[in-house]
Amino acid sequence: MLSREQQTMRELVAIPDGVASVEGLLEIPPHVRGMVLFAHGSGSGRHSPRNQFVAQQLQLADMGTLLVDLLTPEEDHDTQSRFDIELLASRLAVAAAWLRARQAGVALGLFGASTGAAAALRLAAQAGIDVVALVSRGGRPDLAGNEALHRVRAPTLLIVGGDDDEVLALNQKAYAQMHCEKRLEIVAGATHLFEEPGRLEEAAMLAVNWFSFHFPRPRPRHA
């Protein structure tokens, strides 16, 4: 009998977006409650060990994941591109549409880190985009802009390190602008990258619980 690890489907994907191509890693457990699309932050892509760890915890809870590189290698070396929220959000929208077509009818969640959180919120604020739940870890939701923050309707969890003073203050300001179901969780003793022992695990469990609460019951994945 195959183990759960062996039953998880893994596929490297390339999602065309005009002149660029969004590359990613798609992983779907045998019984899937929903798909979580990761929006990575500046200088961080699908190879980020922190986001890979969070993805693994989500998969153990019957959630599929798609980790994508929203920037090409050349763009990722350009600081301006890393903070171009409109560009990141447009690439994320392409990935979301591709995932919707690939996993029709499966609930969609968004997980954003750093500037990727702003892109996720921008996407969730768009009309016609059905996002079931959204999580930001060490994100910059303030960069989404107040107009987008006002329009977000997806239940949103903001996770911030207690020792990440500047980002915590920015999250608190963004949180005040949001009118959806929301929660701000402060992980005591954690800095921006949650590198302290046990802190990333705590953040990952908060994300798992948030998506688990809002996603439907598991069902077999599509062939």
What does this 3D model show about the protein?
It is a single chain. This protein is of the alpha/beta class and 223 residues long. The protein has helices at 4-7, 49-60, 73-76, 79-82, 85-102, 115-125, 146-151, 165-177, 199-214; strands at 9-17, 20-28, 31-32, 34-39, 63-69, 108-113, 133-137, 156-161, 182-187, 219-220. The strands form two sheets. Strands 1-2-5-4-6-7-8-9 form an eight-stranded mixed beta sheet, sandwiched between helices. A hairpin with a 2-residue loop joins strand 1 and strand 2 (20-28). Helix 2 packs across helix 9 and helix 5 crosses helix 6 (115-125). It starts with a helix and ends with a strand.
Largest beta-sheet characterization: 8 strands, mixed
* Distance N to C terminus: 19 Å
Structural class: alpha/beta
Question: Can you count the helices?
Answer: 9
Shape call:
globular
Gyration radius from CA atoms, angstroms: 16 Å
Q: Tell me roughly what share of residues is in helical segments.
A: 25-40%
What's the mean pLDDT score? Answer: 90
Quaternary status of these chains? single chain
Keywords:
single chain, 223 residues, alpha/beta, two-stranded antiparallel sheet, 10 strands, 39% helix
Short description:
This protein has 223 residues and is of the alpha/beta class.
Indicate the topology:
Layout: H1 4-7, E1 9-17, E2 20-28, E3 31-32, E4 34-39, H2 49-60, E5 63-69, H3 73-76, H4 79-82, H5 85-102, E6 108-113, H6 115-125, E7 133-137, H7 146-151, E8 156-161, H8 165-177, E9 182-187, H9 199-214, E10 219-220
Parallel strand pairs: 4-5, 4-6, 6-7, 7-8, 8-9
Antiparallel strand pairs: 1-2, 2-5, 3-10
